[in-house]
């Protein structure tokens, strides 16, 4: 996992509420444990027409949404199943951060563990971002702040361990492996004590 310290991008907006993980990546695409390539299936049934062509009505297919790495989503984003493929698909698609007033707990945990910044905002801040698509934001993970185009800032909270892992580019296993010497020393002292 690469360190996530700062994200600077325009925003794309998906205002729909209750976007569940099956909408993010349909179950029929969960046959792999490979992360690469899942972006082409992200929002598959919403993004494409029946004939496989782009759905011009899908907000992320509009020209102004192209290249946006920050997604402002409607309330209760990521609800439904606990599939880890959902954050994988978003990351592979190019989304680096999801901003919302309510993000499903399991999805948020999976997102943060995989390097997708999932930020919960208060209702007023969220509403303002929904109404202003395409603005440029800078998200500073260390400072836990979103810098607005006018110089204003929106503060957000991250659990300390998730923040540490994002800033250092490690997942939970990587974190444990960083402490391999201490773990091995502890195991040896326990064996001697037994």
Automatic annotation (TrEMBL):
The keyword Lyase applies. Pfam families: Aconitase_C. Keywords: Amino-acid biosynthesis, Branched-chain amino acid biosynthesis, Leucine biosynthesis, Lyase. Residues 5-123 form the Aconitase A/isopropylmalate dehydratase small subunit swivel domain. Its EC number is 4.2.1.33. The keyword Amino-acid biosynthesis applies. It catalyses: (2R,3S)-3-isopropylmalate = (2S)-2-isopropylmalate. It is an enzyme of class 4 (lyase). Catalyzes the isomerization between 2-isopropylmalate and 3-isopropylmalate, via the formation of 2-isopropylmaleate. PANTHER family: 3-ISOPROPYLMALATE DEHYDRATASE SMALL SUBUNIT, 3-ISOPROPYLMALATE DEHYDRATASE SMALL SUBUNIT 2-RELATED-RELATED. This is 3-isopropylmalate dehydratase small subunit. The gene is leuD.
